[in-house]
């Protein structure tokens, strides 16, 4: 029987959580103070002692219960729930997010504002230079 079909294969659950966290075995090994081969062996184990499981949970940033109760279906349901909440209204209809402004117009406003600020800075520098010239001219 493969590790994919065993529902309580704790090593496979650790492996999937690690993968979902975009963490390599080497990174988990470093966090646990061991080597990649030990992590590989652990991920192929059906059971792991509770103390080691606590260390792994901490390194992965999850709880021991999250590892024990992990399921692929739960992950899919979690992401489906997020998708449904973000993109559909209470009737289940997909909402579109249309901009109420033209992004290029906004960018051109920023360019114009930047130009005005530059001109003000340039004018202030000219005034400062004129003041310094008058100051040195008097001496």
Automatic annotation (TrEMBL):
<dbReference type="GO" id="GO:0003677">
    <property type="term" value="F:DNA binding"/>
</dbReference>
<keyword id="KW-0238">DNA-binding</keyword>
<keyword id="KW-0175">Coiled coil</keyword>
<feature type="domain" description="HTH cro/C1-type">
    <location>
        <begin position="14"/>
        <end position="67"/>
    </location>
</feature>
<dbReference type="Pfam" id="PF01381">
    <property type="entry name" value="HTH_3"/>
</dbReference>
<dbReference type="InterPro" id="IPR001387">
    <property type="entry name" value="Cro/C1-type_HTH"/>
</dbReference>
<dbReference type="InterPro" id="IPR010982">
    <property type="entry name" value="Lambda_DNA-bd_dom_sf"/>
</dbReference>
<feature type="coiled-coil region">
    <location>
        <begin position="107"/>
        <end position="134"/>
    </location>
</feature>
<protein>
    <submittedName>
        <fullName>DNA-binding transcriptional regulator, XRE-family HTH domain</fullName>
    </submittedName>
</protein>
């Amino acid at each position: 029987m493969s590790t994919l079909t065993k529902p309580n294969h704790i090593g496979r659950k650790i492996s999937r959580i690690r993968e979902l966290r975009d963490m390599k075995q080497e990174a988990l090994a470093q966090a646990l103070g061991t080597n990649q081969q030990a992590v590989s062996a652990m991920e192929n184990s059906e059971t792991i002692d509770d103390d080691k499981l606590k260390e792994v949970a901490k390194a992965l940033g999850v709880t021991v219960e999250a590892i024990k109760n992990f399921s692929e279906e739960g992950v899919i349901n979690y992401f489906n729930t997020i998708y449904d909440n973000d993109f559909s209204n209470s009737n289940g209809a997909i909402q579109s997010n249309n901009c109420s402004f033209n992004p290029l117009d906004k960018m051109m406003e920023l360019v114009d504002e930047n130009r005005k600020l530059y001109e003000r800075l340039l004018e202030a520098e000219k005034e400062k230079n004129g003041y310094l010239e008058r100051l040195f001219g008097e001496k």
